[in-house]
Amino acid sequence: MLKKHSKFFETLVLFMDLITLACSWILAYYLRFYIPIIPVYSGIISPYTYLNLLLAILPLWYIVFKYFGLYRPRRISSKVAEVWDIVKATTIAILVLVTLTFFVRKYEFSRVTFLYFWIICVISLSIERILFRELLRFIRKRGYNLRHALIVGTGGMGREVTDRVHNHPELGIKIKGFLCENNSQIGDELEGFKVLDTFENIRNVVVNHKIDIVFITLSLSAQETLKTVLDDIGDEMVSIMVIPDLFEYATLRGGISEFEGMPIISLRDTPLYGWNIVFKRVADVVLSLIIILVASPLMLVISLLIKTTSRGPVFYSQERMGLDGKIFNMLKYRTMAIEAEKETGPVWAAKDDSRRTSIGAFLRKTSLDELPQFFNVLKGDMSIVGPRPEREFFIQQFRNKVPKYMLRHKMKAGITGWAQISGWRGNTSLEKRIECDLYYIENWSLRLDLEIMWLTVWRGLVNKHAY
User: Fold this and answer.
1) Are residues 11 and 91 in the same domain?
2) Phi/psi of residue 457, nearest 5 degrees
3) Do 433 and 329 fall into the same domain?
4) CA–CA distance, 313 with 372 (Å, rounded to integer)
5) Which intervals hold domain Bacterial sugar transferase (predicted)?
6) Which of 137, 196, 330, 456 could staple 460 via S-S, CB 3.0–4.6 A?
7) What is the DSSP string of 59-117?
8) Residue 128: CB partners within 8 Å, gap ≥ 6?
């Protein structure tokens, strides 16, 4: 029954894809030659010639989409993952199509039409798949198109899988129960579901309860048990998903990737890779330049006030720790007397600190002393948004006091951050600040950066803990 349902939906999605592709190709032709945003110089080729090219387009897209797994069941995977696969598959298919048409010397197909086709395909196929998924979720929430699942293992990971599946009825997965290691747990209830039997009887449970999906959530020490379980259901028509409890140790965007067909489990990683690095860097440079240009009259006034009200340089440079533990010199407007730490050594700034200059208290209270750090951003030492950098002297104390403290250095240091807009700035709870920093790294996106920048203007510039 599982195979029949999968085949039916594969055929249905394929049919919708072919219709969408044909319409996208016709629309691309129409936009190119009948709404010429870019002038047409070589004349209009007959629409029948372009329609004939569909004989190559439709099978080509099917082959590439099949290769990317876009016709396999995606009951658990996310919409974003499917859209990203559509982008990659469509890009490759377009490149192959352009290459093939290059050898057709009889006709000169418009490259602009191919560009339009690529854009329309990505958008229309993504919308089509999302709408189809929503339709399936609507049906599944009402008890149709369900799959019955069995959880092998009664540990923490098994319970977490059960909880997550149970909280997403739109997936259409119905938990039938657990399997345990020994007889003592049979009949117990975990997360609202019964322990049905032991590992040794998995084949009987799968057959008797008509199981479609088996989630194996055994500990790393149960390797021999895992082999036995897999052997027992090796020829059963069920989907098998192994979730090792190794994921309990995953931090900072841990996940699974693939290398030459071999799955690799990442326990710790940075969100800044590939295009993410480019997008964040471009945003940093553009916004920093704008802020420096707009604030330049104010920065000139501040510089003159510092120079005329106290002895010493306008700027103050201090070593801080940034991305991957690298030390850099962070710029600030000088707000304290020269050699303020000569007698005390490195210390936190205190309320009503006597070391501050006459204008220094105001600059620190309003965060205007941080303006020169936009030059650090342009240089690449810092980002506009990220965990606030700290001095190495304090870091050596904090890393022994606060678990996972050093993980905040997996992201480039920032002028402002999630901790600052959440009220954990200055001499406040270090634990809460680290919690906010790690939350930011785990959930980073350009949208989150923009949200933090916006909230900084309203919450973060003037702060009772800034002194």
Assistant:
1) yes
2) -60, -40
3) yes
4) 13
5) 280-459
6) 456
7) HHHHHHHHHTTTTS--SSS-HHHHHHHHHHHHHHHHHHHHHHHHT-TT----HHHHHHH
8) 16, 17, 20
Residue 235 lies in a domain: yes
Close Cβ partners of 371 (under 8 Å, ≥ 6 residues apart): 295, 298, 299, 302, 333
Q: What gap in Å lies between CA 95 and CA 73, rounded to an integer?
A: 27
> Which pLDDT tens digit goes with each residue over 426-445?
667 788 888 888 889 888 88
Q: Is residue 53 helix, strand or coil?
A: coil
Residues 401 and 380 in one domain: yes
Q: Find the domain containing 193 and state its range.
A: 147-249
Q: Are 208 and 190 in contact (CB under 8 A)?
A: no
Distance CA 435, CA 419 (A): 8
pLDDT per residue of the chain (467 residues) written in tens, 0 to 9: 444 445 666 788 889 999 999 999 999 988 888 776 666 656 666 778 888 888 989 999 999 998 888 887 666 667 788 888 899 999 999 998 888 887 765 667 778 888 999 999 999 999 999 888 888 777 777 777 778 899 988 888 888 888 888 777 767 788 899 998 888 888 888 888 888 988 888 888 988 888 888 888 887 667 678 888 888 887 777 888 888 766 555 556 666 665 555 666 666 666 666 677 888 999 999 999 999 999 999 999 999 999 888 888 999 898 999 988 899 999 999 988 877 666 666 665 656 667 778 888 888 888 899 999 999 999 999 999 999 998 888 888 888 788 778 888 888 999 999 988 888 776 677 888 888 888 898 888 888 999 999 988 877 566 555 54
Nearest one of 451, 422, 407 to 283, comparing CA atoms: 451
Distance between CA atoms of residues 417 and 388, nearest Å: 7
Distances (CA, A) of 260 to 7, 12, 257, 263, 264: 28, 31, 10, 8, 10
What CATH number is given to the structural domain containing 215? 3.40.50.720
Quick check: 380 and 309 in contact, CB under 8 A? no
Q: Are residues 152 and 72 in the same domain?
A: no
Same domain as 193, residue 136:
no
DSSP state of 356: B
What the block records as the tokens of 281 is: 């860097």
Domain boundary among 96, 114, 141: 141
Q: Is residue 466 part of a domain?
A: no
Q: Are 186 and 198 spatial neighbours (Cβ–Cβ below 8 Å)?
A: yes
Do residues 21 and 61 touch, judged by C-beta distance below 8 A? yes
